[in-house]
Amino acid sequence: MALAALNMGEALILTLIEKGILSREDALLLIANAREAKQLHAAEHRLETSRRRRLHFIRD
């Protein structure tokens, strides 16, 4: 789902570039920031999963 949203966002960014609303440089920054945010979210999810596993292991 996140990948589909990113691709839709990239399509919107391309449209904005074509219409002259957004510069290519700004578009590249937006895409890079979206990808970085996605990676950060995935890392946070891995940490939370790891924390839950450790808590479960300690309880057992």
What does this structure look like?
The chain is built from two helices and no strands. By secondary structure, the protein is mostly helical. It has one domain (9-59). Helix 1 (2-18) packs antiparallel against helix 2 (24-59).
Summary keywords:
60 residues, mainly alpha, 2 helices, 88% helix, rod-shaped
What is the gyration radius calculated from CA atoms?
18 Å
What is the averaged pLDDT score?
A: 85
Roughly how many Å apart are the termini?
35 Å
Low-confidence stretches: none
Number of strands: 0
- Overall, the morphology is rod-shaped
Order of helices and strands: HH
* Total helical elements: 2
SS class: mainly alpha
Which range best describes the helical content: under 10%, 10-25%, 25-40%, 40-55%, 55-70% or over 70%? over 70%
Number of domains: 1
The profile of the biggest β sheet is:
none
Strand content: under 5%
Can you lay out the helices and strands and say which pair or pack?
Elements (H helix, E strand, L loop, with lengths): L1 H17 L5 H36 L1
Helix pairs in contact: 1-2
Briefly characterize the structure.
The protein has 60 residues and is mainly alpha-helical. The chain is built from 2 helices and no strands.
